[in-house]
Amino acid sequence: MAKYFDVHPENPQRRTIGNVADSIRSGALVAYPTDSCYALGCQLGSRDGISRIRAIRNLDDRHHFTLMCQNFAQLGQFVHIDNDVFRAVKAATPGQYTFILPATKEVPRQLLHPKKKTVGVRIPDHAVVQALLAELGEPLLSSTLLLPDEEEPMTQGWEIKERLDHEVDVVVDSGDCGTEPTTVIDFSSGELEIVRRGAGDTSRFE
Questions:
Q1: Residue 143 and residue 153: Cα distance in Å, rounded?
Q2: 206 pLDDT tier (thresholds 50, 70, 90)
Q3: H helices within 26-75, ranges in order?
Q4: pTM over 0.90
Q5: For residue 117, how many C-alpha atoms fall within 13 Å in the half-sphere facing its CB?
Q6: Is 19 exposed, middle or buried (0-12, 13-18, 19+ CB in 10 A)?
Q7: In the beta sheet, which residues pair with residue 120?
């Protein structure tokens, strides 16, 4: 059965965040809220976590996983980013955007798109996730909690606990969460491409 943590959405309890971070370091797969919708997350190098996320979501090896980063300095360790892209990404973070960029050698190979060698990165504008990332000291490997054959992600922690009680190890609940995934912007080819229109306003990229 999954551990269930009720976390204050604006002032997350430090001890609780510490417990969640310890679980992640021990290999746990966690369902957690973000500024767009719920996500599944695990430690950066966890092969087991990656395979469990793939199984829950029925994903193939071309799926772009996302590195949930605390800040821009951390993001810059894991992707190659030129000056023009730097300015565009910097202006839109933190926020409801995922950016696909060429990965550095810091990114485990199993996370990369097999042909493009790219990875998704984002900086969330959410107090609970920011507290968790600060406690971890590294990005959280993530994917939207959207189950196969469903059009919208689940929005309630208790519902996720009921549905995925034997498939995830931890559920973090900080109240209602949005239903719309992030807007995905692909900069990897040198040309901007809007891959998915979601919670983030695309007008700044058009």
A1: 11
A2: confident
A3: 47-57, 72-75
A4: yes
A5: 7
A6: middle
A7: 66, 100
94 within 8 A of 124, measured Cβ to Cβ: yes
Is there a contact between 52 and 24 (Cβ–Cβ < 8 Å)? Answer: no
In angstroms, the Cα distances linking 152 to 89, 149, 163, 177, 180 are 26, 9, 15, 12, 7
How far apart (Å, rounded) are the C-alpha atoms in residues 105 and 124?
23
Of 19-23, 97-101, 135-139, 186-190, the least confident: 186-190
Q: What whole-number distance in Å separates Cα of residue 150 and Cα of residue 121? A: 24
**At 55, which amino acid appears?**
A
Q: Are 123 and 93 in contact (CB under 8 A)?
A: yes
Q: 10 Å Cβ neighbour count for 21?
A: 21
Return the pLDDT at 190: 80
Q: pLDDT at residue 111 above 90?
A: no
Place of tokens 């059009």: 151
| Distance in angstroms (rounded) separating the CA atoms of residues 143 and 159 | 18
Alpha-carbon distance 19 to 156, whole Å? 21
Residue pair 79/89 in contact by the 8 Å Cβ criterion = no
- State the amino acid at position 41 in one-letter form: G
Q: What is the DSSP letter of 131?
A: H
- Classify residue 59 by its DSSP letter: -
Q: Comparing 68 with 149, which gets the higher pLDDT?
A: 68
Task: Check: CB of residue 31 under 8 Å from CB of residue 38.
Answer: yes
Amino acid (1-letter code) at residue 72? F
Other CB atoms closer than 10 Å to residue 159's CB: what's the count?
13
